[in-house]
């Protein structure tokens, strides 16, 4: 205890003219001469003859070890007509708490405006709220407008105003009451004063509060009768302001993300249409535009062809573009109404045909066209002839459009076509697609490579365009450009030396291009020549026409190509590797005879395939082990939950049985007493009437209580036998540790009935005392002192019941706060070495069944958390 404990603001009795502090007693205490109760009495007896302080009450607070335990104590002395007497000696093992600012220590009433003992915390919280509201509102004005910012300021202002009312309003401090006005008032030992019913003492604020609710640390004071409504209003406006500012922040202030593993968020799945835009080429008399629209992100591909009569070379331009349309319901400058005119202008500028009148579409929807993937191809029918075309689904059943066997968020598909230029006769095999956000990308690459190997013919310029939703160094893209693919492609943008990203941000139109690449133009040809590649970011007034940029590559077909990148005609890496392998095989075969390096390559490829299959099996085993362990944990948690629910049911049943038995005991006594009571002939009719009325009320109340408890007991038994197990079995695993089906059912169906039964029992017990008093006047009517004594004892028992028992256990008549039952899940998680249930969904998983690389497969372990389905 600190040295300033003598100045502890302990509430003192009001001073009057007839009261004063015994200076001798105070000096004795301060000097340390008082060491025991006998010393206190000795000091008090020396001033017994002082009439001025006779019958006066006063208290002295000091630091002294009165109890002799080596601790600092509070000495509480009371001056009465018999001298000093020992009142209390309590260990002061707590720290002194500052007084209420603005409170009165010994007045008749507390002020209307007070702040709590932790007023500095209230000021700090107020400043933080104010700063956050002003920052969000000021930053929102340039982008959202004054109206939305003003709405946020109004909500924040209302929140701060209600917070100030809670922090500065008197919560209902009970003034000092020396004499209780009624019997319902109780005495508070801490305040040394009487308090009205419902008032409780707050140890933090050191005052009694009317209708005390709780002590709020954020406001630094209690919440009681006078500021409870402001507290609820503050919570309401706080939630509204917080939600509104979060919406404003995420809509207008959230910066574009560069590390988006899935730019097509699930809430944006109906936000885009895939529309192709042609090349900016103006020197080409022939144009060929291919687009892949879908209801989500859109990839547009364009081929512009120019034939050089002198060299018999054909220049082609292929482009991919994702256009976000009105399905997204974007607001502000990014709305489709503001962008569509500029998108049309870009489309017109980049299309060499007049008014796009010669363009036609091929391709089908991947399901219902109003809500699923669409990958159309648009081409100029006046310049190009369709040799063959079709669609296939990205699933294990590619021939069935709309099939989805990989657990994708939406149906995915690819549109393909083989085109022949009507003038030069060059053939182009074109495939346009759009991958899922993260699921099934590896399988999609494998399927597309297999399909292109069967669709495209030798001599065709084969191209794959679209938004693959993954970066160049990921497994799906590496597979398409790697030697293990049956149809090896080349990333033409990388070949042309193009750097930088193609993605601005999901639904973002004013930010800069990020470093993330999602849009590709991949190609393959026996004599592939890439002349140029570029990323085009069209803007109007600083706003992009989509959240993706255009990507375009320029190719040269024919024998007279020039200006190829790296100064030569480039063959694909697969062709180069095969040519080198064939030459080396011929040399070795000439030297060593029958040995052929092609056999060695085949053996190596088979060995790699076998290793990849082994890695896949290991990955599958790990996944199955995780599923089994999670299933074991789920069974254990459900079993534990069911056992705890049965314990709750048994506890409720025991409570109801106890109440019913007590009521039955009192009911039986009342009925037996009524049956055996001898009523004299000349008994007072008023007493007899009161006796009959009280007996009837007691029997009725107790009987109703027994019936209600019996009905509740039957309801609990029926719920535990027929419904509880199904409720636990159907409970979501994420809520198994926090939700109690029986508690929820009890609060909904039985809580109010139980409270009513308790109230009826209490009322019946109250009337039972009156019944006993009236029965004594009838049973002992010939005597005077006996019924009076019995009546007095009944009245004393009634007061003891009302003031000591009923007031202390009155909280049983209020619905209890719902608390969840904890389980031993952490122990089971540690035993099984699995991630917390908060990060793992046990019901439904979607795994990438084939690892992207051996290194990735090695990193898979039993402790690796798997992402659940969205």
From TrEMBL:
List, as start-end ranges, the regions of compositional bias called Polar residues: 847-864
Q: Where is the composition biased (Basic and acidic residues)?
A: 17-27
Does Hydrolase show up as a keyword for this record? no
Q: Which reaction does it catalyse?
A: L-cysteinyl-[protein] + hexadecanoyl-CoA = S-hexadecanoyl-L-cysteinyl-[protein] + CoA
Q: GO: which molecular function terms? A: protein-cysteine S-palmitoyltransferase activity
By sequence similarity, the record places it as follows: Belongs to the DHHC palmitoyltransferase family. Belongs to the Orai family.
Q: What is known of its domains?
A: The DHHC domain is required for palmitoyltransferase activity.
Cite the residue spans of the region called Disordered: 1-28, 847-870
Where does the record say this protein resides? Endomembrane system
| A single Gene Ontology CC term | Golgi apparatus
**Which EC number(s) does the record attach to this protein?**
2.3.1.225
Keyword set for this entry?
A: Acyltransferase, Lipoprotein, Membrane, Palmitate, Transferase, Transmembrane, Transmembrane helix
One biological process term from GO is: protein targeting to membrane
- Its EC top class is transferase
InterPro entries attached here? CRAC_channel (IPR012446), Endo/exonu/phosph_ase_sf (IPR036691), Orai_sf (IPR038350), Palmitoyltrfase_DHHC (IPR001594), PFA4/ZDH16/20/ERF2-like (IPR039859)
Q: What is the lineage of its organism?
A: Eukaryota, Sar, Stramenopiles, Oomycota, Peronosporomycetes
**Palmitoyltransferase DHHC domain mapped to chain residues:** 185-271
Bilayer topology term: Multi-pass membrane protein
Give the protein's recorded name.
Palmitoyltransferase
Annotated membrane-spanning segments are 119-139, 145-166, 231-254, 688-714, 757-778, 784-803
